[in-house]
Amino acid sequence: MKLLVILLFSGLMTGCRGNSSYSLPPKLLLVSFDGFRADYLQNYEFPHLQNFIKEGVLVEHVKNVFITKTFPNHYSIVTGLYEESHGIVANSMYDAVTKKHFSDSNDKDPFWWNEAVPIWVTNQLQENRSSAAAMWPGTDVLIHNTTPSYFMNYSMSVSFEERVNNITTWLSNSNPPVTFATLYWEEPDASGHKYGPEDKENMHRVLKEIDDLIGYLVQKLKMLGLWENLNVIITSDHGMTQCSENRWINLDLCIDRSNYSLIDLSPVAAVLPKINITEVYEKLKNCSPHMNVYLKKDIPNRYYYQHNDRIQPIILVADEGWTIVLNKSSSKLGDHGYDNSLPSMHPFLAAHGPAFHKGYKYSTINIVDIYPMMCHILGLKPHPNNGTFSHTKCLLVDQWCINLPEAIGIVIGALLALTTLTCLIIIMQNRLSVPHPFSRLQLQEDDDDPLIG
Questions:
Q1: Where are the domains of the chain?
Q2: CA 342, CA 322: separation in Å to the nearest integer?
Q3: What is the 3-state secondary structure (H, E, C) of 400-418?
Q4: Strand ranges of the sheet holding 130-134, from the earlier edge strand across to the other edge
Q5: Is 369 in contact with 391 (CB distance < 8 Å)?
Q6: What pLDDT is recorded for position 404?
Q7: Residue 372: enclosing H or E segment and its boundaries?
Q8: How are beta strands 248-250 and 323-325 bridged, if at all?
Q9: Single pTM value for the model
Q10: Transmembrane residues, as ranges (predicted)?
Q11: HSE on the CB side for 297, CA within 13 Å?
């Protein structure tokens, strides 16, 4: 019982401490290093990132959404929605009604983005606040007639340092204040594609550069006096897996190109048939034992990847490490996009700031859970989403959270305490009820001739 009282009291005190940190408008910086696979943290050294984690929290695996590609998952992070709900279903898309095409070089049409409301829009419309962005996908698009108050048009030629300098300036000096900001960097994704994640020498060099960039970001925040009061989340959109020229699935060996259009390629290919859908499906179904072929209606429910017009009639999903090609034309040694249950596709999440615990590790959350957590930190009312706030409660200082092992320990402790107390009561009762060894036999008044034998 004493243990339960102590835990309850400490939980209430934690909640009070958490609330006191929000006397000033809370601020949040969301950072993505594209293609940062979760187990890079175990396989390489990251002194700056580990210092960041030591003073904050780490989620070792973030289960992202299918398909595990850049545009879809970045939009899931900031909307809390599966791809079928937010509408960014691939890096390349086609809309049959409007005949419009979407690609990473043709992504500025609000038509593609308006099926959801990203958090930077909500932050500006709900409160007298500003949002800022440095290259995060979609932030340079007029979504619901709104862009962040401060943003940079996407250009991969702009250095990380310049992006950081702009973001920190906006966080420091803006009116109304910037309370939500995003920062995006293309690595280690670009190098993961080029070398493959199993190239230890090259990936060691690239990941050391990323760790140095994290060190630069933290130093800049400290220098400007932002570090103590700013909440910072560092995460990614997906992981990376090793590919090779020995694991190609050549569609040209199975079907003539005149029979279909390929909207998005490997490792999840979106097929728009030009002839009968069933005929195209039959030709592709037995193309390779290392590729699953689905009619749209048969896409597994666990992918949450059916209910949107931008998902094509036939979807091809390659096995991990296999590449779908046309006439053997691929130079990638690493790729992503595969089944989102694969650990190699999972990123991580680390966070630091007044909203987060210190030195806390957690196993897994879903990528859509990040959105309701961010809304909570900023005091925003979230739009309907697929995330679950309770999945992230253990990361936050203003939430009382007991994980399963702790809950089991409390129950066992309580049962032991109750058992011990019950045993003591029984023992005491037995002691009181046992007659003294030399007590005289008490006679009833109506006993005439007692036996004293």
A1: 27-81+116-241+339-395, 248-334
A2: 14
A3: CCCCHHHHHHHHHHHHHHH
A4: 150-152, 130-134, 178-185, 27-33, 230-235, 349-352, 57-63, 360-366
A5: yes
A6: 60
A7: helix 370-378
A8: parallel
A9: 0.86
A10: 407-427
A11: 3
The amino acid that residue 185 corresponds to is: W
Which of 377, 375, 382, 373 is closest to 25 using CA atoms? 377
Fold held by 248-334: Gyrase A; domain 2 (3.30.1360)
Token pair belonging to 174: 């803006």
The CATH superfamily of 27-81+116-241+339-395 is: Alkaline Phosphatase, subunit A (3.40.720.10)
| pLDDT at residue number 403 | 61
Locate tokens 């973030």: which residue?
A: 62
Residues identified as active-site: 70
**Beta strand segments in 186-333, E:** 230-235, 241-242, 248-250, 260-264, 268-273, 291-295, 314-318, 323-325
pLDDT of residue 92: 98
Token pair 């230890």 in the structure block, residue:
200
Checking DSSP bridges between strand 150-152 and strand 130-134, what pairing results, if any?
Answer: parallel
Query: Where does the pLDDT of residue 427 fall: very low under 50, low under 70, confident under 90, or very high at 90 and above?
Result: confident
Do residues 178 and 133 make contact, with C-beta atoms less than 8 angstroms apart?
no
Sign of the torsion formed by the C-alpha atoms of 438, 443, 448 and 451:
negative
